[in-house]
C-alpha cells in the first residue's frame, strides 16, 4: 500500500471526508442489521469502492481486511473451461464478471449460487448473509443481467449483492428496481483540495494552495487521479512550486494530439496518420468510450456552438454504431473523417463569408 | 546404283544376270517415277507384262534346288541394306531409293525371315529426324502402288493357276510342297513333278532363285511397308478421334527427356543445374569448378559460372553448398517438375520424388527423407546417388517442413536409434541435394524454408516459344494447325504448357480448336491483390470508362471469387493512398465500413446468414466512391495483425498487474498506469546507495515498495547494439506511456542496479517476516506438548541470543560443543518430533495390543532390537578409549555475530 491513493484511503465511515450525510445514512442502514441489494453508481474516482468497503467493515468488522486472491474455474455447457480472479474474505467475495467476456453469465449464475447456498452455521455472532460484490455491472452482457435478476430474489436470505458501476444506463431496469440505488457523486473541487492538503500534511509536504487547486481542476473531479497527480508531482519536483507542471495521463495528451491533427488538415493522408494514432490508443487498452469522449471534448474546443451540437450528435451516433459492431477502428476513423468533412465545410463557408 | 553393289561376288553377278536386268529396269522405272509422277500409273500398268514373263520362270522353278541360292541372295541383300542405312543420305532423290530398296528387301525377306521386319523398323528409326514431306510423298505413292499391286497379285495368281495349275490353294493329289504366304497367312500348294521332265527348264531358270517372281515380291514388300507406315499414320488419328482409347498423353509423350529439350528459360535451367553441380564435391567427391566431364552444351556457359563462383562463395567450409535446398516456384504448367527431373538426371542423380499424393505427415516424411538421402539403390546398375525432389511442397503440413529444415541442418537423427556421438559429428546435415517445388511461394508454412533456400522463380514461357513447340508437336502428330492459332492458344492459357497440350490433344486438332478452347483452361481465379486493384481502379474499355451498372456487375463478380473479410481489410488499409482527395466521399465510404461491420456483427450474433448479400453493396459503394483512373499502389494489410498481437500482449500484462495490485483493469489503464512511469522514475543519483542522503533513501524505499506492490522487477536483457540494460517486467511502459507525449528520463543503469539490489533485499525481508508468521502459526496449531517443547527451544534460543548480546563481541569465546549422547532435544528437525510421536504411539499401540492379548511379537521385537542396536553403537563410540575430536575451521581469532538482518 505504498501509493498514496491506497495509503490514505479511509477505511471506515468515520474517516470519510465528503458526502458526510450520505455516509451517515449508509451507516444507519447497516446498523439496522439488514438492507436490500445495493446498486452503487457514480463516476470513476468518486469513492464508490471506498464506501462499499466501509459498509463491509461496518457489517463484519476487521475480518474483511484479510483479503485473498483466488482463481475460480468455471466450465461452459460446451465444455470450455475458463478462470476468473476473485478477491474474497471470509465474509464477502468480489468479482468482475466482465473479465471473461461473453461467459459472464455462467460466472454470475454459479458464483452467486455457490456463495448463497452455504448458510452460516452460527448466525448468532455473525450476520446471516454474505456479500457478493460485482464490479463493472454496466459491462455485463444482457444474458448475464437476466440471469442475475432471478438469483437476486431467490437467494436474498443468505446473500446480499452489491453492484458497483460507473453508469446505470446500461443496467437493466429489472435489476435497477430490485436494488437500492445509491449514487456517489464526484467530489467537489474543494473536497479534493482539502483531501490533497490532508495527504500533503500527512506526508509532511508543503503544498501551495494554487497547486492543489490546479491539480484538483485537472483531475476532472476524480479523486483517485488527483492524488496520483499529486504524487507524480512530488516525484517530479519537490519542494512544490505554484506553477509546477502537472502531469496528465499520456492518453489524454495523445487524444489531444489527434484532435489537433484533425483540425489542421483535412486529407486522406492526415486520416492515415490519425489511424495509426487510433491503433496506438487501442493497443494501449484505452476503453473506446473514453477515446470517443476525449476526442469530442478536444475537438469541440475549436468550434462554435452550432458546430458543437452537430458534432456531438454525430459522435453519439457513431459511438452507438461502434457498440453495435466489432471492428472499432472503422468507427473511430469514420468519426474522424466525418468531423473533417463537417469542419472543412464550415471553414470553407466561413472563408467565403469573409471574402 | 551399281556403285552401291560393290561387294557382290562376280559369280553371283553372272548367275543372276537377268535378274539384274530386271532390277535395272526397275530402277529406271523408279527414277522415272520420281521425275515424272504423272505417268507413274501408266508405268505401273505396263508392269504386269514383265511379271507374266517372270511367272513363267517361277512355275518352272524347282523348289528344292533354289533354297540355297535364295538364302545367299538374301544375305547379300542384307549387307547392302545395312550399308545403305548406315549411310545417311541427305539428298532427297538418293534417299528415296534406299527406302524403296529396303522395302523390297523387306518384302523378299519376309517370306522366310520374320525377324527382319523388326530389324528394318529399328533401322528406320533415325529417319524421324529427316524431313517429313518426303515420307508423306512416299506414303501417297505407296497407297497407289498398294492398290495396283493387289490387282497384279491377283492376276498373277490367276494366270499361274490357269496356265500350269502347278500352284493351287487346295491340297493337290500329287506330290507337293506347302508354302505359306507370310503377309496374309494364305497357304499355297506347289505340285512337285518329276525332275527329269523339267530338266531343260531347270537349266534355264538357274538364274531365277526366287520362289516368286521379283515383281511380285516387290509388290508384296511394298504392300507390307505400306501397311506398317499406314499403321503409324493412323495411330495419332485414332487418338484424336477416340479419346477413351488413347493411353499416352501428349504431355507425357513430349515431355522433354534431355536437358537440351527443356522449354523453360535458359537462365532458370542453368541456375538449377549449377546448384546441382555444387553438390558434386559432396556427392561425387570431385571438384565442381572443373567440369571436364561435362557435356558439350554446358561448356558454353562455363565461363559465366566461373565468374559467379568468384563473386559469391558457393560453398561453406565443409564443402556444402551455402544454400542446401533449392526451391522452384512458379505458376502451374510451366514445367517445374520436368525441369527438376531433367536437371537432376543430367547431373547424374537417381531421382526420388515425393509429391502430394504421398503421405506427407511428419513421420512418413522423416522416413522418406532418411531413406532417400542416406541410402543408395543397390539394384540400380549405374549406382547413381539419389536426389530428392519434393513436389508440391506448399501443400505439406508445417510440421513436415520443420522436419525438413531440421534435417537439412543435420539435427535430425533416425528415430529409435541412439544418436552416436561420433556419427553426429560427422553428420553435418543433408548430404544429397533436395529440390522443392511449389506453386505459391508465400504459403505460411514455407516461410522458414523460403529464407534458407535457393529460390528459383520459374518465369512464364514466352508465347512464341510455346507456340513453336506446340507446332512441332502438332506436326509430329499429323495435325495441321496454323501457327497463329497456336499462338492464340498459348496466350489464352497463360502460357501453361500442360494445359495447351491437353487442349491440343483432345480438341482433335480440327479448326474447331478455338471454339473449344475455353473448356480446358484452368480456373482463372484472381488473387487478393488483383481484386483490390480492381476495386480501386475504374475499368477502362476501348470506348472509355465503363458504365456504372457494368462496374457494379464486375465488382460483384470479384466478390464471388474471394473472401470478403480480407478484401475489406485490404480496402480499408489501402484507401487513403488510392482515393481522391475529397473528404466527403471518404466519410461516406467510411460509413459503409461501419455498415459492413454492423451487419457482420449482427449476422455473427444471430446467425442470420440471409443478411450476408447486403454486405456486398458496401463493396460496390466503395468502388464507386473510391475508384480512380490512376494505377493503384497496394500493400498487404499487416497492421491489424500487429495491432492484435500488441493488444494480446498488453492484455496479458494487465491481467498480471491485476492479480498483484487488485485494481481492476479499467482503472489500471485509465488512471493508475499512466502515472506509474512517473512514479517509478524518481531522481536518484547514480552513486553508491550508501552515499544516498536520507531523502534519497526514503525515495528509494518508496520506489521499491511500489514495485513490490505492483509485482514489478527489472530484468537484465542484452541490447541489440551490445551492452546490457534493465527492463521493467512486466513492462508497463507499453501501456502507460505513449510515443511523443512526454519525455521521461528513464533511470540510469547504475540506479537500476541499486534498485534491484534493494528490491531483492526487501523481498527477502518480507519473506522472512512471512516465514516467521507461518512458523508461529504452525507452532500454535501443533499439539500442546510439542508446542511447549518448541517454545522452550525458542526461549532457549532467545536467552542465548540475549546472553551473546550482553557480552561484547571481542570478549566472546567459543567453547567446543560437547557431544551429548542424547542430542535429540536440540535437534531442530521438525519432522523428527512427529517420528518420535509416531514411535511413541506405536509403542502405546503395541502395549494396548499386548493388553488385549493380540500381541504382535514380531514387530515389537523388531523395533525393540533396532533401538537396542542403535544405543549400543552409540555407546561403543563414546566409551571407547581412543577419542579424537577434529576441530575443522575452528578459530577464536576474529568473530562477530552476523544475523540475516545485517546482511540485508
From TrEMBL, chain A:
Instruction: Report the domain of life of the source organism.
Output: Eukaryota
State a single Gene Ontology molecular function: DNA binding
Q: Name one GO biological process term.
A: DNA strand elongation involved in DNA replication
Gene3D superfamilies documented for this protein: 1.10.8.60, 1.20.272.10, P-loop containing nucleotide triphosphate hydrolases
CDD domains per the UniProt record, alphabetical:
AAA
| Keywords of this entry | DNA replication, Nucleus
Keyword Cytoplasm assigned to the entry: answer is no
Similarity comment: Belongs to the activator 1 small subunits family.
Assembly, in brief, is:
Subunit of the RFC complex, an heteropentameric complex consisting of a large subunit RFC1 and four small subunits RFC2, RFC3, RFC4 and RFC5; the RFC complex interacts with PCNA. Forms an heterotetrameric complex with RFC2, RFC4 and RFC5; this complex has ATPase activity but is not stimulated by PCNA. The heterotetramer of subunits RFC2, RFC3, RFC4 and RFC5 interacts with RAD17. Interacts with CNTD1; this interaction facilitates crossover formation.
Q: Give the subcellular location.
A: Nucleus
Q: Name one GO cellular component term.
A: nucleus
Task: Give the species.
Answer: Ceratosolen solmsi marchali
The protein's role, per its UniProt record: Subunit of the replication factor C (RFC) complex which acts during elongation of primed DNA templates by DNA polymerases delta and epsilon, and is necessary for ATP-dependent loading of proliferating cell nuclear antigen (PCNA) onto primed DNA.
Task: List the protein's name.
Answer: Replication factor C subunit 3
The keyword Nucleus appears for this protein: yes
From TrEMBL, chain B:
Question: Where does the UniProt annotation locate this protein?
Answer: Nucleus
Q: Recorded GO terms, molecular function?
A: ATP binding; ATP hydrolysis activity
Q: Which UniProt keywords apply?
A: Nucleus
Any one Pfam family match given in the protein's UniProt record, by short name: AAA
What SMART domains does the entry give?
AAA
Which gene underlies this protein? Answer: LOC105361643
Which protein, by its recorded name, is this? Chromosome transmission fidelity protein 18 homolog
Which residue intervals define the domain AAA+ ATPase in the entry?
322-460
Grouped into one coarse class, the protein's main location is nucleus
Provenance organism: Ceratosolen solmsi marchali
Q: Which InterPro entries does the annotation name?
A: AAA+_ATPase (IPR003593), ATPase_AAA_core (IPR003959), CTF18-RFC_complex (IPR053016), P-loop_NTPase (IPR027417)
Please list the coiled coil stretches. Answer: none
